[in-house]
Write a structure and sequence with these properties.
The complex is a heterodimer. By secondary structure, chain A is α+β, with helices and mostly antiparallel strands. Chain A folds into five domains: 165 residues; 55 residues, no CATH class; 114 residues, no CATH class; 195 residues, no CATH class; 130 residues, Isoleucyl-tRNA Synthetase, Domain 1. In chain A, helix 7 packs across helix 8, helix 20 crosses helix 23 and helix 20 packs across helix 24. The longest helix of chain A is centred in the middle third of the chain and has 27 residues. By secondary structure, chain B is an alpha+beta fold. Chain B is built from eight helices and ten strands. In chain B, the strands form two sheets. In chain B, strands 1, 2, 3, 4, 5, 6, 7 and 8 form an eight-stranded mixed beta sheet that branches. In chain B, a hairpin with a 2-residue loop joins strand 6 and strand 7. The longest helix of chain B has 22 residues. The chains are: A alpha+beta, B alpha+beta. Chains A and B meet through helix 8 of A and helix 3, strand 4, strand 6, strand 7 and strand 8 of B.
């Protein structure tokens, strides 16, 4: 099979787009070639910032195709005189053939005598070379970019201008070394202008390397040819290979506890010819808070900090350059880093001149959200919420309350510091650092402020447990990124209780009510409506967090579907119930499957009816009495009082294990007993019995939700 | 003149770049004679990128950013820096190579440095303008902002324009190998500090301490009002007057500068900020519409009215 090769030469594409674009090239080309009947095989794609490449085997020619087009019944095709009728002539005309050329055949093989007119439409396969231009055009159009730009380009496919991620500067399009023609025109006043790019067999290497032969036009005949020539021209086409090269150059640093801070994934997409270089951090800046150093190096320069014992002494930087130029390049990089660090050092010194607590009053001038007042009001609101959590809800001890109140008051004060204005990503972090550096008497307060925006992503671990002994479990009122914040709140509650076994359970319902009440008149809608919306929003987040922790969706639904207690009212218990359900279901998969089926059936019959009293006198069948007996045995020891399994990790598990023994009685009940009996008293009694059985589970999970 | 000096003096950088771009067909314009925050605000960029007519121009633009003032004490940050701005409309296909050629003209050999085009899109909320592009990094130092303009004054551009903005001080510091902007040589033997340090001190002091807040609030309001008054004028027959856009645009610049001074003075709350930015943008967008002759409706344009065309990007 012939080899197809497409290289889209572009001006530098953003690094973070490349993984997605590379995959799209492979996938989209495969789809398009399939749709063009070119049976693509072994399709691979590669990329650098300046090129997107896809290659693979395709058929040289489409297969010929035959399509049967059925016409009117043969008996109405000719009139009594044996002349073709209008119907027959019309069909021939539609088919584009003379009426004599039509065949007659049985349309239904089962009725061989019933003939219809038949036109066999033959389509000769086209050459791949003729089909590919349209496929390439569709590929260019179909690539999805996070942001597209107009570059005044025009494609002759009837769809007009061609926006793209960055301007295209050359196209290599080859089918077995033959150029596949495609032209991109300049758009002029929404019409076709002169040619900008024409496909060919010419590629270009690294912009600046090798010295003396940089940017040279190179003709290629195949993918292997392209790969090899590009390598000679200092371009490593395969991102995976660039990563290997980077790793091997970083290898000497492996002993120093190197973390790449997630940069390596991006690094390989930044350059065509990876060369890692190392720079020094001058002594005088090594005492800056490590978070500041990391922000400057990682976020601003994309360099990897190196060092020991919380002291950054060096950095690793990726370049697209030649090793021969290392000394000069490193000197330039160090100069940039020093300039930034000098700024940071200036900010730090200036900010330190005022105690952080002093800045709380400045927050009055910083709007939190239109209509919801300033950050100063928000700080006061947070303090009142802490009071409620302690005094009314009783989920904070007196000591925790003191710490939390103080932390809540100063938590947002760093928004007015020079450092946070320059490096917004350091909000919260700087507050903690300044409190510590200014010698705040309570380490817990500084820690709570430092972590109060966290967790900021689902991947990130929750804040360390020690934070919560100081306790600021309220990260939930950020007006932007609400989902992330709500998720954070849910996770803080879950992990909060892992850290600290406290008698009182945090209720998200009560916390929500208290938080909404704190806004007072500022909230325009009725508070009850806002609370209801927030609760359903939080329940969604709880669902997401549970699922993200690897639990099956049906198990999550089952637990969230339990009635008593409500998952939001007691997320921590819901979390325990979920783990128990997951484990017990693994042990007794079959039992749970059967129970799920039975309970789905039961639920369909009884709906939301509350469990009713059962009159033992009315129990007629053996299976009925067995089920009643089993249900009675399994009733919780003190119905209505206390929480099941509370504080004992195995509580839910052992309970679920015993409940799974219901499978036999329930199955027999459904096999032997007619639930919808004619006698209304019998029917009511049987429904009551079923609902009792269901309600046994409702305290843990709605088993009927299992199995989808 | 210092014997250690290895690169061009600042004024030589300017003349080298001006010659380079003049040789490539650019008209060499002069700085706009009003306070602006960036070369983009010069009408030779903001207005010329509108409409279909090709244009190639280059000019130096001293750019005032009051909040960046550091009393001349910070070696990297100043109230006023100088940009050299190039507009190529439409951008030629080899625009990146032509740009790289200008670095060579300055004595920077990309083969022995790490020169990279790194994603950095540009956006000006006050001008209703945005573009796609890169910051050009020279060994990790940003020396140029390279932008393909997509929209200006809320209007989609066709053709697009290529904008190349050199940070002259940064390039100079790189070429002369100095860590302190004020140690730059402006002319052989004359430092940047000698030319500008006192100005930095006085202008920083003014922006942070002395500027009259009430006056600047009034200036801001009055500038917008005057801009709209010009834009709302009607010629003979009641048609909208197209020949008031240039003075009207000057008032956009004045409003923008008053805003920057108030900002440096810490006199703008977060909630006010949005409204003020929107106020400038509405006027800028109105001017752009009039400039291209798109607002041919007969309704009078008022300061309270909506922007004629929805601004697609905030």
């Amino acid at each position: 099979m012939p080899e197809f090769l497409l290289e889209i030469g572009v001006e530098e594409m953003p690094a973070r787009w490349l993984p997605g674009l590379t995959e799209q090239m492979r996938q989209r080309f495969t789809e398009l070639a399939q749709a063009s009947l070119l049976v693509p095989e072994r399709v691979q794609s590669f990329s650098t910032p300046r090129r997107l490449v896809v290659t693979g085997q395709v058929a040289a020619r489409q297969a010929d195709r035959e399509e049967k087009v059925w016409g009117p019944a043969a008996k109405i095709a000719k009139d009594a005189a044996g002349n073709w009728t209008k119907a027959a002539e019309g069909f021939a005309k539609k088919s584009g053939v003379a009426v004599d050329q039509l065949q007659q055949a049985p349309r239904d093989p089962a009725l061989p005598a019933e003939l219809n007119l038949l036109h066999v439409k033959r389509t000769a396969g086209r050459n791949a070379r003729d089909v590919l231009p349209a496929a390439i055009a569709a590929l260019l159009r179909g690539l999805a970019f996070p942001k597209r730009m107009s570059w005044d380009a025009w494609l002759e496919d009837g769809k007009g201008t061609l926006p793209f991620g960055r301007p295209i500067r050359w196209l290599v399009a080859l089918l077995d070394a033959q150029v596949v023609p495609l032209t991109i025109y300049e758009a002029q006043a929404a019409a076709k202008g002169r040619t900008i790019v024409e496909s060919g067999d010419t590629t270009y290497g690294h912009r600046f390397l090798p010295p003396g032969a940089a940017g040279r036009a190179v003709r290629v005949r195949s993918f292997e040819d392209l790969r090899r020539h590009l390598e000679e021209q200092r371009v490593v086409l395969d991102p995976a290979r660039r990563e290997e090269i980077i790793q091997s150059q970083l290898a000497p640093m492996a002993g120093t506890g190197l973390s790449d801070f997630g940069l390596l994934a991006e690094w390989k997409h930044l350059v065509e010819w990876p060369t890692v270089m190392f720079g020094r951090i001058p002594e005088e800046f090594r005492r800056l808070p490590i978070e500041v150093l990391q922000t400057v190096l990682i976020h601003h320069q994309k360099y990897i900090p190196l060092g020991e014992d919380m002291h950054v002494t060096r950095f690793a930087a990726l370049t697209n350059a030649d090793r021969a130029a290392e000394a000069e390049i490193v000197r330039g990089m160090e100069r940039v880093v020093v300039a930034r660090l000098r700024d940071a050092a200036f900010f730090f010194a200036e900010d330190m001149k005022r105690p952080l607590a002093d800045r709380v009053k400045d927050l009055a001038g910083v709007t939190f959200h239109q209509g919801l007042g300033s950050y100063e009001e928000k700080a006061r609101r947070l303090v009142r919420l802490i009071d409620t959590m302690g005094e009314r809800l009783g989920i904070l001890t007196r000591g925790e309350m003191e710490t939390a109140r103080e932390a809540a008051l100063v938590a947002k004060a760093d928004l007015t510091t020079l450092m946070v204005r320059e490096f917004p990503e350091l909000q919260g972090v700087m507050g903690g650092i300044y409190l510590r550096a200014q010698g705040h008497p309570q380490a817990n307060v500084a820690e709570a402020v430092r972590w109060h925006y966290h967790p900021v992503s689902i991947e990130e671990g929750s804040p360390p447990a020690r934070v919560f002994s100081g306790g600021v479990p309220t990260g939930s009122s950020d007006p932007y990124g609400l989902r992330r914040a709500a998720q954070g709140a849910v996770r803080v509650l879950l992990d909060f209780w892992q850290a600290e076994e406290t008698e009182k359970q945090p209720s998200l319902c009560k916390l929500t009510e208290a938080a909404v009440a704190g806004y007072g008149q500022a909230v325009k809608r009725p508070a009850a409506d806002v609370v209801r919306d927030l609760e359903s929003f939080l329940l969604d987040r709880l669902r997401y967090v549970f699922t993200a922790r690897g639990f099956a969706a049906d198990e999550v639904e089952a637990v969230l579907g339990a009635r008593e207690p409500d998952a939001l009212d007691d997320p921590r218990e819901a979390w325990k119930r979920l783990q128990a359900l997951h484990r017990v279901r693994l042990e007794a998969t079959e039992d749970f499957e059967a129970l799920a089926v039975a309970f789905k059936r039961a639920k369909n019959i009884i709906g939301d009816r509350p469990p009713a009293e059962v009159d033992t006198g009315l129990l007629q069948e053996g299976a009925e009495r067995d089920l009643h007996h089993a249900v009675a045995e399994l009733q919780p020891p003190a119905p209505g009082g206390g929480r099941q399994g509370r504080g004992v990790d195995g509580g839910y598990e052992s309970r679920l294990r015993s409940l799974s023994s219901l499978r036999g009685p329930v199955d027999r009940f459904f096999d032997d007993v007619l639930v919808m009996a004619e006698d209304p008293r019998l029917r009511a009694n049987r429904l009551g019995l079923l609902s009792q059985a269901l309600s046994l589970f409702y305290r843990i999970a709605d088993i009927s939700k299992l199995g989808g | 003149m210092s014997p250690a000096r290895k690169g061009l003096a600042l004024q030589e950088i300017v003349s080298t770049l001006q010659k380079y771009w003049a040789d490539r067909g650019c008209l060499i314009h002069q700085p706009w004679d009003a306070e602006v925050g960036a070369g983009t605000m010069h009408p030779e960029t903001f207005l010329r990128v509108l409409g279909p007519d090709p244009w190639k121009v280059a000019y130096v633009q001293p750019s005032r950013r009051p909040a960046d003032g550091r009393y001349g004490e910070n070696p990297n940050r100043v109230y006023k820096h100088q940009q050299l701005q190039v507009i190529l409309k439409p951008p030629p296909a080899d625009i990146q190579d032509v740009y790289l050629g200008s670095l060579v003209a300055l004595g920077i050999d990309p083969a022995v440095h790490d020169v990279r085009f790194e994603e950095d899109n540009w956006e000006s909320p006050t001008l209703g303008a945005w573009g796609i592009g890169w910051q050009v990094l020279l060994d990790g130092q940003e020396i140029t902002q390279f932008t393909y303009f997509q929209q200006a004054g809320g209007i989609d551009l066709a053709p697009i324009s290529g904008e190349i903005t050199y940070g002259l001080e940064r390039i100079g510091m790189y070429l002369q190998d100095v860590d302190d902007m004020f140690a730059l040589e402006w002319a052989p033997g004359v430092t940047y500090g000698r030319v500008r340090k006192e100005e930095e001190y006085q202008l920083s002091r003014y922006s942070f301490e002395l500027a009259d807040v009430d006056l600047h609030r009034r200036l801001f309001e009055d500038a917008l009002k005057e801009g709209w008054r010009l834009l709302d004028m009607r010629g003979a027959g009641g048609a909208k007057d197209r020949r008031t856009v240039l003075p009207a645009y000057d008032w956009v610049l004045k409003a923008s500068h008053a805003f920057n001074v108030l900002d440096a003075r810490g006199a703008i709350s977060v909630s006010q900020r949005q409204g003020m930015i929107l106020g400038i943008r509405k006027l800028a967008c109105g001017i752009a519409q009039r400039y291209v002759g798109a607002d041919t409706d007969t309704e009078p344009q008022t300061a309270k009215g909506d922007t004629p065309t929805a601004v697609k990007r905030a």
